Amino acid sequence: MANYLAQFQAIKNISDHLVIAVEDVSDLWPDVKDLFESRLPFKRACLNNKTRNPVSVENLPAEFILTTDSRLRSRFPQEQSLFWFREPYATVVLVTCEDLDEFKSILKPRVKLIVQNDEKEWFIVFVNRAHPSNDQASKMAKRVYAKVEVEFSTKKRERCCRLDIHGPEASFWEDLESKTMECIRNTLDRRVQFYEEEIRKLSEQRFMPVWNFCNFFILKESLAFMFEMAHLHEDSLREYDELELCYLETVNVAGKRKEFGGMEQGDDEAALLNPGNKPLAQIVQDDSFREFEFRQYLFACQSKLLFKLNRPFEVASRGYLFVISFSKALAQYETILPFCMREVWVITACLALLNATVSHYKDGHVAPDVEKEFYRLQGDLYSLCRVKFMRLAYLIGYGSNIERSPANSAALSMLPWPKPAVWPVIPSDASYEVLEKEKMILQTGPRVKNFGIQRKPLPLEPSVLLREANRRRASLSAGNMFEMFDGQSNFSDGSDVPANLSRATKAHAASMLRTNSSPGNFEGSVDRPMRLAEIHVAAEHALKKTISNPDLWKSLSSVEDFEQKYLELTKGAAENYHLSWWRRHGVVLDGEIASVCHKHGNFDLAVKSYEKVCALYAGEGWQDLLAEVLPNLAECQKMLNDEPGYLQSCVRLLSLDKGLFSTKERQAFQEEVVRLAHGEMKHPVPLDVSSLITFSGIPGPPLQLCDGDPGSLSVIVWSGFPDDITLESLSLTLIETHNADEGAKATSISAATVLKPGRNTVTLTLPPQKPGSYVLGVLTGHIGHLRFRSHSFSKGAPADSDDFMSYEKPTRPILKVSKPRALVDLTPAISSALLINEVQWFGIIVRPIDYPLKGGVLHIDTGPGLDVVGSHVIEMERYTTTPRSIADRGDSELTNQDSLPSNFEDVTQLTLQDSKIQFPDWASDVTSALWIPVRAVGDEISRATSQRLSMVDGMRTIALKLEFGISHNQTFDRTLAVHFTDPFHVSTRVIDKCNDGTLLLQVALHSQVKATLSIRDAWLDLQDGFVHTCQNNGRPSSAFFPVTVSPASKAGMLFSICLGSTNVTGEAEALTSESILNISYRISGDRVMGAHMPVVVKSEVNQDLNCDLVFKSALVLQRPVLDPCLAVGFLPLPSDGLRVGQLVTVNWRIERLKDLEGNTVPGEVLYEIDANSDNWMIAGRKRGHVSLSTKQGSRIVISILCVPLVAGYVRPPYLGLPNVDEANINCNPPAPHLVCVLPPVLSSSYCIPA
Question: Are 218 and 293 in contact (CB under 8 A)?
Fold first, then answer.
């Protein structure tokens, strides 16, 4: 069966559609051919896949071929069974007949003979030639067609259809397609079953010696190709996948490894997408195929089907995995393959996959995640191709033109060198090329970076190429060790020459260099190691023989072409990575593009790419990589005169870890920053130094301030500069925790601040802030003319480190400003009354509430009737909460009123200046008492009353305003009420009226102060009309002086007086005159408790301290009324008594007792009824006038209706005469009395009989 491989491939190349055989019984095909072929391809078809599930197929290609065609008749039976997929899938029998006899005798037997083969799927098309105008012919044609249906159609399957050649109906074509699809479907199912059975038989023999993979391949691919012809691409792809697995299983069987292939010309160019690259007969080997060609053939078939399925993404995905796995297979045979065959094949395979998948891909026709994954695969293919391309370029001497970046170093240092059996030998006529290579090597030096940065170049090779190449030379001997390394004395490119060679060995090596290093010296020892230039030239010549693709070789023919191809591959990878999930890969490759642009002076493009790379490295925290790229960005910015960008790059360089750069390099960074900051920048911009200057609060509790208070805030500023740096200004913004939009601002008080490397403590002034909790915000300032800002925060350094920094935002508040609250309290030191008209100590307790009062000033403003005695000193003393009662004080305090109680200490004497008092420093944070001498002025004389006067009568006010805090920004206002009173409250009453007209007047003295009063003397100055009965100068009848009156107690005195003559001419004055009570007393009290001995003022310093005080009170004495003018009597109530709810008449009788004289009682009398509304309801007028004759004995009765409301003893209504003095009225009964009110009578309507 393997002999048919060439024929099988030829059949495949020409068979790309299904075949439908046409059996032309009545020579009708020339007439209907065009009509039939116009229906191809079939627009819609329904076929069964391998699992017998219906699959809809569109545009199914097919071809109608006559059975007499040579393509169907020149086949042997064995070929027909082997290549069954190309046999017809349906047979259309074209017949016509004009009468029944002809049908029975000729047509019917011929058709029977044609359709007797059971393997054929057939149906009959009866062509009606009769013209529609010929009714007889049309009727006969219908009869014949009916006979055809009866003979060849069954109930299970309809096999006949009719075509009117003069006017075919649309239903015919639908019927034709339906019957054709039915035949194709049945044939396809039968053939699939046949192939599956044959494949199953061969699979069972897989591990037997007689098993032949070529036979299995022909059957398997025939089935796959048949599916492909039927547009069942999924089933075809599945068959190729199974075929690939079976082949790999066969190849990897131990002991059966055979020739790999890949040794022919052109094999270096991958044939992943070209199934017909080589005929199958050329790659057959015994009972199988060579792996190199056959695996590519299988993948090409798979990719062709995937493209037909419009799945370029899967082609890229499978292609990338295939390139990786096939590259590993090439590595196993690298010693027998041409030089660098593996690298060249991978490059061509990646490029082929990229071109094919991009051309077949349509944007927007796949899901977004699939699209991103497709671009990622494209980027991977570009990257793989790029790395292999750089390896080839390095081998031929372009290593100096490859940027030694971290990405390139990581890719190339992990990529092994080619491993040929023998390293290529340099041609004999290549001396000039070797010389040029050596010149290029000598002229190439490390590029000097900006700021004088010196770095060991990153390696681009897994090991030293010189050693690797010479090790693989067939004639290499253990010769000169140092000549193997091309005489290089400095191994800065990552070589691993033993460092323990003696100096003698090195000197000997130097002498050998002068002998064997000449470019044209090829006459030396046969075993002389190759020099590096010779290795490059030898590799270039070997590659020229390996590479068959002219475009690829052109890209390696010169440095310019190499860089152009290198940029093309790098840009392709970067662009696709940017469109995929892996944006970071794209940014890294942008850096490689930037390095090429930087090298050629395209600084604009280089800066754009470098900024992306630096942003990625900084965001990921890859500082080692950032240290490689950031100097290049700074250099480009400097060349573009981009001062702001260059300045920011210098700051970022300083912000990197200290170990990445030397101290000298870091100092160079700082010099550039200072130079630009103090220079004249055209467009100065704020500089962000968040990564270089950080700050934190002082460890400990936050600074506590009150609303409106300024303060000083100390912060720790960490400087990342290597040397001291001067800041022209420095300010700090604080952020309120609940409002990030508004914040406080602390401004530096110093003109310039010098930051040392590491930790610095800076104190800032803080203006008054709103209440709230504040955290650190932004640190701003100026370096020269440049404004900078930092918003990074640092934590306190541990004990073993002085430069520990963290960029976490602190949550601990640095400042707390309390809401408006009472910072101080001013309260009276006493609550009892002071003596009026006397100088008294008024105490004010000053209590700071968690706030210092240092430098406080108290403003005093007294109200009307109150004065501060400014000539006397003001005392301030420490206050404690242990008061002492007056009872505990001794008699010595009667003479020394200034002695201090035990709860006051640290007395300080102050003076009043412009109504202000300056507080001493010791009173800043302690509770103190301020004693101010005041005098309350009372012009009116005290009067004796039955009730004590209201406290408001002796009230005075004093307004206080305290200014305190820093710069006196805090104020506290309060108005205090001070109660002043007389020492005594006087009340009088006549306790007895003697027969001789003598009156005994009792005077009661009630103490109104919390002090002990000692009455030394008392006398009464009587008004006109009264005289004393005794010759004692108005003294009391019983004079037991001195009399001591304790607080809240009272004393009494008895005066004996009688009526005297009145001055008739001054009767009006006599009526308004008053008697004066004079009391001489002394007071013993404590200013802490209340009233005390008056303060001695400087102007009264000569006054006797033991002099008595005099208290005067006015008494009003009235002469008694001996005969009343009117008599008011309450008349008796009804005898049946009073009941609740019943009307009753209450009568009063008014009688004049004497004639009207002096208009004492007028003729018209005003009356008023007063009754408790809860007890009585009055019916009638409560108030009115009645006429009463002025003659003695005249009477009048006043009646009123009322209703009792409550039962019991209640007071009856009362008749009053408002216009008549009570002394002129004689009432009967004389005092209020009670009457009995009975409950209401029970109602019988509420009684229930028993």
Answer: no
